[in-house]
Amino acid sequence: MRSLAAILLAAGALLAAGCGEPKSFLYSEAGALYDAGRYEESFPLMRKAADGGNTQAMALLGVMLLYGQGVAPDGRAAEHWLVRAAERGEVEAQSIAGIMYATGVGVPPDSEKARHWLTIAAGNGDAAARRLLAQTPSAVSY
Q: Where are the chain's structural domains?
């Protein structure tokens, strides 16, 4: 069984791979730099796209902040961007936020928030969130 942290990394990779249509040229450019591993160049463009309202950029910016890709790791800033994207309906962000809270990566573990976001993501068709919710209650509670 894959660990929750591995699922979190995989979800971030799927988001970075550009699942779904990019919503802006800026996001597309930032995503291409991200995919090439050029995180320091990607970060400011991703931030601009996120500030401009692109929910995919918000979610990937959250992942970059969570793992320190192109910037020092900052769990609280990651939480801000992931939740902002999740609240705007970005399913990958909903799933990543749930996993982040379940694992305590970047933020203190919070089973209530984990279950909240995983339930929403699962309801929106996210298979990883569905699998996590189907596991034993200890997978998302402390």
A: 4-139
